[in-house]
Specification:
Blueprint: E1 5-10, E2 13-18, H1 29-44, E3 50-55, E4 59-61, H2 85-94, E5 100-104, E6 107-109, H3 111-114, E7 121-125, E8 130-131, H4 145-153, H5 155-164, E9 167-168, H6 170-176, E10 181-183, H7 186-200, H8 203-215, H9 223-236, H10 240-250
Helix pairs in contact: 1-2, 4-5
């Protein structure tokens, strides 16, 4: 179905592999379109429990493909029509109802790094080349990174990295909170986390939790979270998932939750 990405769905894990290894999986307009389509489909597919995004070969994504033209950032549309393609993909990721993990198996530069910011967990290969290099290319932050990056590392560190455009050591990224894990095999670690999620947790619980935590990042008062949590708990307490969660605990066995992510009602405007 796709030209620039590969997908596999096994035991509830949808693995998305950026597939331009000859170009270090550099980002193109075609890749952006295909990722938008993929995330739309994954959101509606109840067979998908967890999504992992990784790169083929030795890189994750080396940034925008600068060989496509003299100025690949310039497109012939009006200012009112223009939408940053990285931002369009980030918004698709933000709207997902499934956990999504970035298995950063190598270089992740520019859009190759900002595209991971709306993902839930970032696992990076030790000593991979990563950086927000936009100022060194005469452009600025994109892919909604102006909103997402500060949520992970705070304003001061985000500004330092963006101002300098320097490469960031993976160890520094761990300390700052950009990455959760720094390992030799990010995909293996991502698969372990995904398998644990699928084995032990309810799809409805995770769908609600993902929406709750991302929505409440900038909530002006904790009551917003209290109200949404109360609505969900009232609903969940009357569902088969809660019954199964309690019974499996009492019977000392793994749960078999019957509900799907699509069964979750709308708890947020």
């Amino acid at each position: 179905m796709f030209e620039t990405i590969e997908t596999t769905l096994e035991q509830g894990i949808l693995t998305v592999t950026l597939n331009r290894p000859e170009a270090l999986n550099s980002y193109t307009y075609k890749m952006s379109e295909e990722l938008e389509q993929l995330f739309d489909e994954a959101k509606e597919n109840d067979q998908v429990r967890v999504i992992i995004v990784t790169g083929k070969g030795h890189a994750f994504c080396a940034g925008m493909d600068l060989s496509a033209s003299e100025n690949p950032f310039k497109v012939e549309v009006t200012e009112e029509q223009f939408r940053d393609i990285g931002g369009k993909v980030s918004l698709k990721i933000y709207e997902l109802n499934k956990p999504i993990i970035a298995a950063i198996n190598g270089a992740a530069v520019g859009i190759g790094l900002t595209m991971t910011l709306p993902m839930d967990i970032r696992i990076v290969k030790k000593d991979a080349k990563v950086g927000f290099v936009f100022a060194r290319r005469g452009i600025g932050p994109e892919a909604c990174s102006g909103w997402f990056l500060t949520k992970h590392v705070g304003l001061g560190k985000a500004l330092e990295w963006m101002y300098s455009g320097r490469y960031i050591s993976t160890a520094e990224g761990i300390v700052a909170g950009l990455f959760q894990y720094e390992v030799d095999d990010p995909l293996q670690k991502a698969q372990e986390i995904a398998a644990e999620i699928i084995r032990y947790t309810a799809a409805t619980s995770n769908a609600f939790t993902r929406k709750l935590l991302w929505t409440m990042v900038n909530a002006p008062h904790p009551f917003s979270s209290h109200a949404a949590e109360s609505k969900f708990l009232y609903w969940a307490s009357r569902q088969k998932d809660a019954y199964e969660g309690i019974q499996s605990f009492m019977e000392k066995r793994n749960p078999q939750f019957p509900l799907k992510a699509s069964d979750l009602p709308l708890f947020f405007d």
